[in-house]
Specification:
- Among the domains are: 43 residues; 32 residues, no CATH class.
- It contains two helices and two strands; from the N terminus they run αββα.
- It has 115 residues and is mainly alpha-helical.
- Strands 1-2 form a two-stranded parallel sheet.
């Protein structure tokens, strides 16, 4: 049956609402698409907020790294495959270590690989 799993919604709109420019018989389909679009836009808005928060955290991390590099409190060296943090000089960090410290993703892409 066509209506199985569906519910009807009756709403009152202003007489000059743009939906009334759509020909009768097509309005239901247009309204359904607008509803789907609205849900998608809500998702995009939520993702935008999460991205803005992540960018702000990254900006703070970069500022902290720059300050540490300028003061000499941190040095960067290229990571050597198979070398652990314990084998590195005490005040030297690889770029992967810096990303991990600030909750970012390592550049090697090996995180989560527990082989």
């Amino acid at each position: 049956m066509f209506r199985k799993g569906k519910r009807r919604l009756d709403i009152w709109l202003p007489a000059d609402h743009p939906i009334f420019k759509v020909p009768a018989g097509e309005r239901t389909m247009v309204i359904q698409h607008f509803g789907d679009f609205d849900v998608a836009m809500s998702y995009v808005e939520n993702m935008k907020d999460e991205i803005l928060i992540a960018v702000a955290k990254l900006d703070m991390a970069v500022a902290r790294i720059e300050k540490m590099l300028k003061s000499g409190a941190m040095q960067i060296k290229e990571a050597v495959p198979g070398e652990s943090i314990g084998q590195m000089e005490s005040e030297t960090f690889s770029i992967d270590d810096i990303y991990r410290e600030f909750g970012g993703l390592a550049t090697t892409g090996d995180e989560g690989n527990n082989d």
